[in-house]
Amino acid sequence: MELITVILLILLGVILLLVEFLLIPGISIAGIGSVLSLIVGIVLSFKYWGNMVGIIVLVSVVIFIPVLLYFLFKGKAMKPMILSSDIDGQVRNIDEKIIHVGDEGETIGRLAPMGKSKINGLSVETRSTSGYLNPKTKVKVIKIEGNTVIVEPINE
């Protein structure tokens, strides 16, 4: 009877671990139940059969579970569940031939402190150095950082 109890507890732990990985990701009842079931199964093997069998069960569980998870995720069964597309998009940087430091433009929407502005006929992402700016505010380019243009309001 003890043998069946230990085997069932370890199998329950493995099944709950698979449920945790495949169906309910995150730390949930299945994950906690899995860990508790495995620990109780290992502790009972120490209690019923002594140190030698307990250590064999412990080492077997510690080796078996990572190997099982490795082959599960590397196998064909998981291929439909794993995203395998590559992202080939790129961030478009500001063309410094079109927009230069010192150019002037106008905000399209409110800069809070980021928003859109029209500079040299282009609608670009801008960031204000002086906080919030209302729409239709005249601005001047003071710096270009990647795909963001840093602007300041023009005081007229």
Could you please describe the fold and organization of this structure?
By secondary structure, this protein is an alpha+beta fold. 42% of the residues lie in helices and 20% in strands. β4 (138-145) and β5 form a beta hairpin. The model has no long low-confidence stretch (mean pLDDT 87).
Strand fraction: 15-25%
Rg value: 31 Å
In total, how many beta strands? 5
Distance between the termini: 91 Å
Overall average pLDDT: 87
- Class from secondary-structure proportions: alpha+beta
Number of helices: 3
Give the gist of this structure.
With 156 residues, this protein is of the alpha+beta class. The protein has helices at residues 2-22, 29-49, 51-74, and strands at 104-107, 114-119, 122-128, 138-145, 148-153.
Features:
42% helix; OB fold (Dihydrolipoamide Acetyltransferase, E2P); 3 helices; alpha+beta; 2 domains; five-stranded mixed barrel
Task: Give the SSE layout.
Layout (H helix, E strand, L loop, with lengths): L1 H21 L6 H21 L1 H24 L29 E4 L6 E6 L2 E7 L9 E8 L2 E6 L3
Parallel strand pairs: 3-5
Antiparallel strand pairs: 1-2, 1-4, 2-3, 4-5
